[in-house]
Each structure stands twice: as C-alpha cells, then as structure tokens.
Amino acid sequence: MSVYYVLSDASILVKGKTYPYREVMRSLGAQYNASDKSWIVPNTPDNVSRVGELCKSVGGGLIKETTHVSLAPASPAYPPSQTLSTGAMPSPALMTRVADRTTTLTTYEPPSLPETAENKLETKLSDGFSIAELMRQAQLAIAQSFPRSVWVIGEIQNIRWHATGVYFQLADAKEGGSQSATVTVNTTIWRSQLKDLERKFGETLKEILQDGFRVRVLADLSLFKDRGQLSLNIQSIDPNFTKGSLALQREKLLKELRAKGLDQKNKSLKLTPFPFIIGLLSAEDSRAKSDFIDQLKVYGFPGQVIFLPCQMQGEATLKDVVSGLKDLQKVGCDLIVMTRGGGSAADLRWFDSKEIAYAIAEARIPIIAAIGHHEDVCVAEDICFQREKTPTAAADFIISLFQKTRERLGELSLVLDKTLSERVKLFDAYLAQLMEKMRAEALNTINDQRRLMDQAESSLELNWQRRVMQWSSRLEQQQTGLRQGLDLRVQKEQARLEQGQTRLRQGLDLRVQKEQARLSQGQNSLLQNLELRLQRELARLNQQCDALQSKAQLHIERIEGRTRDLAKDMQRATQIGLQSQEQALMRAEAAIKEKDPQPWLKQGWTQLFDDEGLIRDGQKLKPGQDVKARLTDSLVELTVKKVQSSKEAKV
Questions:
Q1: For a disulfide at 628, which of 351, 505, 609, 640, Cβ 3.0-4.6 Å?
Q2: pLDDT tens digits for 595-637?
Q3: Contact present, 315 and 349 (Cβ < 8 Å)
Q4: Are 216 and 151 in contact (CB under 8 A)?
C-alpha cells in the first residue's frame, strides 16, 4: 500500500499504489501518466510538504538515486514545467534543446519529512488548522480508511437522471432519532459507469433505481473538500438485494392481512344486480381510462361512470388512491374500478403498500382491480373483490353482470306467467266444482220437499174418507195454506240459492280481476321504472360525452401551443449549440496552428535527427557524426565538424 516519490527541479514523480489517493493528486494539480501509472506533480514547497505527508502516512517516502526513472510524461515532448502550466507554445530554442530527464535511484530510505515540514505541521497542531488544511487532512484520512470500494446499503431519495449521469441520495434511519429522521450521503453514477451497468443489467437497472427503493451498491467513498461533503461513486449494484427486499415486504403485508381476516373482507361483499353507478380510479388521459369507458360504450352501458383522476405511479399514488376510494364511497357508487396500464414491478410497487391494502379491506363497496401486471399479482389485486388483467376485461365483467341479471329477470317473468296461468286454471276448476255442488244441493232440497209433499198427500188421502165430511172444508183450507206455504218456501229457497250462487260467482270474478290487475300494474310499473332510469342514465352519459369532448379539444389546443413553444426553444437551442461548436472548432484550429512546427521552420529554425531520433543535447554529438536537418520542404544530411557550447559559439 506504500507510495513513494522522487524530486526533480521542475516536478515531483509520485509512484506506487496511488489509486485511492487520485482525488488528492488532482487537487495538487498533478497529471497522470498511464504508461507507468505515476503522477507528475508541480514542484512547489507546499506540494512537496503535502506529498511527503501523504507518503509518510501510508508507509512510503522519498527515494534517492540509482536506477533510471523517466520523469517525462508519455505524450508531450516538452518539459514538465511547460506542460503543467498554461500549455503555451515553447520558445524556438526549446525546439533543438535536449532536456536531461533521467534521475538515478539508489537505496530506499525510511520515509521522512524535511525538518521544515515537521516544524510546520507542529505549528499547525499547536496554532490550529485552516479550513483548507482541515479538509485536506480529512480527505487523506478517508482515502486511507477506505482504499477500496465498499458495499453500502441505503434507501434511494431524490433521484435525478441527467446526460452526465445519475444523481441521488442514499438514506438510512438516524440512530436515536425519530422514525422519520434520516442520515443521507450524496451518490453519483457517472455516465461511463452507467453505460457499463446498463449493458450488464439492462432494464433491471431502471427498475431498481427508483425513489424509495432500498439498494446494495459497491461504491468509492470520497470527500469533496471545497464543500466538506462526503460522496459515493457507484461502481456496481446488487439487483437481487432489492428484489428480495420487495418480495419480503409484500409477503409480510399479506401475512398480516390474513391474520386479521382482511384479505377476504372485500371479496365477501355482495354485488348489486344492476351496478348503474361505477366509480373509476385511473390517471387523467390514460389509455386504461379510455379503454374501459370505450368498452362500456360498445355494449351500451346504461349506467353512470364517476371518474376520479389520481396518480397511479410515484409517491403521490398512495395519497390519491386512498382518498379516491373514500370519496367514491361517499357518492354512493355500486362498484369501484381501480385500473392502470400495466408496467414493471418497480412501477407497481405502490399497490403493494399497506395504506392501499387497508383502504381496500375497509371499503364497503366491491372493488375491481385491473392493474395489468401479468407476471406477479400485487397485494391490491390479491385482496380486492375481483381481479381482471386489463381495463377492457373489467368493463366486460360489469356488462356480464347486467346480462346475467337480464337473463334472471327473463326466467322470473316466464315463471310468473306460468304461475298465473296455473292459478287461473285452478280458480276456474274450483268455480266449476262449486257450481256443480250448489246445483246438486238445490236438486236434493227440491227432491226432499217433493217427498214430504208426497208423504203429506198420502197421509191426507188415507184420512180423507174417514174425515172427509168433517174436515172437508178444513182440509181444503189446510191444503190451500200448505200449498201456499210450500210454494213460498220453495221460492225462498230457490231465491236464496240463486243469490248465493251469484255472490259466489261475482266474488270469484272480482278476485280474479283484482289479481290480474295487480299483476299487470306491477309489471307496467317495473317496466316504466326501468325505462325512466335508462332514459336518465342515457341523458347523463350524453352530457358527460359532451363535456369530455370539450375538455379533450381544450387539451389538444394546449398541447399544440406547448409543441409550438417547444419547437421555438429547440430552434434557439440548436442555433446556440451550433455557434458554440463553431467557436470550439475555431479555438481548436488556433491551438493546432500554435503547436505546428512549420511556422518556426519557415523562420529558419530546424530540428536535428540521428539514428536514435530527435537530438536535444548538442554535447552528445561527436565530430564526423552524420545527422539530418529538417527544413520546410526537405530533409538535409549533414556531417558534424565541431561541437561548441552555446556560450562559446558566436552567432
């Protein structure tokens, strides 16, 4: 884990295991050399002190000379001091000068700071740290404590997707605080790392990176010293951790509902035969809402749909759905339909929440859930009265209720007609039997009277001879009175029998007429009520259609206005982007021209080459050595006659 450094006149070469301290190196203005995995730091007193302090803290230090170690960066051909400054074009003299960039390393000495640096650190400890120094020390401490990526578990909050990457906060419960108190840390997934994660996990990545999800991530911890903020840079994600956590929460909630008997509470409610008033919970202008209403219109639904718009995705889903269920119960709906257009498991996790589950269990009205998730069944679908896969299927279920009720009414009407016909036949048979019985009784009475009369006549005839003389006048009187009495009695009996028969027939006719009138009245009243209610519902549906058409027209006009504004904004942004690109190209062209050696060659300057390459140090040339000189249009071969230093040479 050691880090060591080598000093030169213009720079500090830092080598070793420097990856955990890359942020510290960048804060010193260092440049990374990928060829040998080293850092080139400008040689300033402050940088020397800070690099020595870093190396000492991790068991490294200064290395003195023996082995050759190149201090030059891999790409530029100019001295480090020129490269690390403003990037300006070097002077013409530097085009032919050779810089000695080798330093020899010998034995490794124990890491130590210069005496002045130690005195300076002791002074800081006694007098106090400045904020910059304090942040620097904290940055070093964090780099030493967390040299590698670590796995971190937390809940995602305030996630934002940008072109440069994904930004959010990882939160956890605050120790000793209230239930809502949290501790958070800023977290970032840079664009390059995000592309790697998307290739690795695909669509699963977006399903996991959602507000409110608890995730397990592999991240690098660093301190942004300018603001004194800790941050995490994510390197990888464990998707199985989040999926397992969601499944456990859902199973825990279902177990709690089953223990209280709430999972069957809504299923045990009774459906009305004619659900004329339907409550609809869905998103405004959603495909689920339009599919449900259009399917009802296709089958000529005679009732009313009370639509209550609410969010079906995001944090507002819980509040909107719970309050929507309560509001639709207050207006007296016969049935409530809760629907949306499907989605991933992450989009539908709100319907696995405790709030919505208890709102469904406490509802006094049957609820149909058409969430549209084919793979898994969420808690809301599991405990509602009826689960349908699509909004269209929910509408078909409602229409089927009307069809079943109509079929039942038809069956009852047939049974009623059959029952009435059988009762009328029974009454006719009973009336015929009664009339026959009365006729038989009347004949029996008349026959009895005739027998009496015959007996009386026989008795009179037997006594007639014996008492003819004595009782002739009396017999005639009695016979006359007896005949009159018998005739009157027969007439009275016949009249009484005829009156009884007439009253019985009238009573039976009146009772049959009343029963027929009552049945006709009930049937007419039922048909009139059904027709009146259907007319009212059709009128309401027509009014709602007109209102929806006007609202849709307004919405279309607003969208067209927004589209025109967006087109104008995009045109302006495109023009600004093109201008900025043109300026960047011009600046790049100017930079290339500044670094082009051709202008210097045209002014008379040249570059010398031998078999080993570009010659920068004239002291290495020997008389008689062949060299090549580059001109603007050719390459000239030369022979060295004499070598003099620049101080001795006369121009």
A1: 609
A2: 777 777 777 788 788 887 888 787 778 888 888 888 878 888 8
A3: no
A4: yes
Question: Measured between alpha carbons, how far is 424 from 432 in angstroms, rounded to an integer?
Answer: 12
Structure tokens at 130: 């400045």
249 C-beta neighbours (distance < 10 Å), count: 16
Residue 293 and residue 547: Cα distance in Å, rounded? 14
Burial class (CB in 10 A: 0-12, 13-18, 19+), 487: exposed
Alpha helices in 209-353 (DSSP H): 239-260, 287-298, 316-330
- Distance set, CA 414 to CA 156, 406, 426 (Å): 65, 12, 18
Residue pointed to by tokens 């000492």: 56
Tokens, residue 428:
């006719």
C-alpha span between 481 and 483 (Å, rounded): 5
Residue 303 tokens read as 């009732």
In which element (H, E) is residue 167 found? strand 165-173
DSSP 62: B
For 574-588, the pLDDT digits (tens) are: 888 888 888 888 888
- Type of residue at 396: D
What CA dihedral angle connects 143, 146, 149 and 154, to 10 degrees? Answer: -120
pLDDT at 246: 59
pTM: 0.35
d(CA 553, CA 254): 44
Euclidean distance between the first and final Cα of the chain, in Å? 55
Burial class, 470, CB count within 10 angstroms (exposed 0-12 / middle 13-18 / buried 19+): exposed
Task: Give the closest residue to 347 by CA, choosing from 309, 381, 313.
Answer: 313
Look at residue 66 and give its three-state secondary structure: strand
User: What is the average per-residue pLDDT within 216-241?
Assistant: 81
Least confident of 121-130, 411-420, 423-432: 121-130
DSSP reduced 3-state for 353: coil
Alpha carbon distance 236, 213 (integer Å): 16
Q: How far is CA 478 from CA 206, 457, 475, 482, in A?
A: 126, 12, 5, 6
**Structure token digits, residue 520:** 């006709």
pLDDT band with cut points at 50, 70 and 90 for residue 204: low
Q: How many CB atoms lie within 10 A of CB 120?
A: 15
Contact 605, 586 (CB under 8 A): no
Phi then psi dihedrals of residue 513, to 5 deg: -65, -40
Task: Specify the amino acid at residue 100.
Answer: D
Note whether 90 and 78 are within 8 A (CB).
Answer: yes
Predicted confidence (pLDDT) at residue 100 exceeds the cutoff of 60? no
Predicted local confidence at residue 548, as pLDDT? 85
Amino acid at 580: S
Helix (H) or strand (E) holding 4: strand 3-7
- 321 closest CA partner among 359, 295, 291: 359
Burial group, residue 553, by CB count within 10 angstroms (0-12, 13-18, 19+): exposed
Query: DSSP letters of 483-520?
Result: HHHHHHHHHHHHHHHHHHHHHHHHHHHHHHHHHHHHHH
Q: Could you give the CA distance from residue 102 to residue 104 in angstroms, rounded to a whole number?
A: 7
Q: Which residue type is seen at 496?
A: R
